[in-house]
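Below is the data:
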Amino acid sequence: MINVLDKGFIKLVDFMGSDVNIVNAARISYDKRVDAISEKDIKLLDYLWENKHTSPFRHATIQFHIKAPIFIFRQWQKHQVGCAWNEKSARYTRFDVECYRPSVFRLQHKKNKQGSYGSVEDNDSALKTYDHAINIAVNAYYELLASGVCKEQARMILPQNLYTECYWTASLQAAMHFLLLREDEHAQWEIQEYAKAVRVLMTPLFKNAMTKCVK
């Protein structure tokens, strides 16, 4: 398990396959198979990835248990092809609310409409405003539940920085595609941190394939 942000984590649950599975999925076209990776096979992995012949990379899968803020999952769950998602539900259970609290508030990027940089001048004031808003939302959630409001409606007031948990199962190809997009410097810093953790957990399992997953 790797801790991410202030209260999040990502944990490897299970995986299927290895570099050998990828190579054998490719070599079945010629009715060939191997039991161990050779230099020839490493070159094959290079060729497959560089020329976008990526279907063999779908013959390995990986499963993670992830705790992250809702706004991170809403970015992450755009990755649907080759992926399966199941998320903890505030409709079924009362949340013991935990919210992400950034240490620094960044400035809006002047050219990149979705980007950010640096930090605001008065970070303490920004944090005070942030904490105030979160406290109001969280206290209102508990008050609604206490008054008898159903969980599926009381949850509507919870903020996007609320931590929730998911199981994410992905083909190796899908997970590598996630890394290519979310480790990029243009991705939001918070999801970059999760992507870095994904890479750390994946690399020992698919040592040769993961060397291809670079810009």
Residues 123-146 form the longest helix (24 residues). The domain at 2-89+165-210 is CATH 3.30.1360.170 (Gyrase A; domain 2). Strands lie at 2-4, 8-16, 61-69, 83-87, 107-108, 116-117, 163-171. The chain has two domains: 2-89+165-210, 107-157.
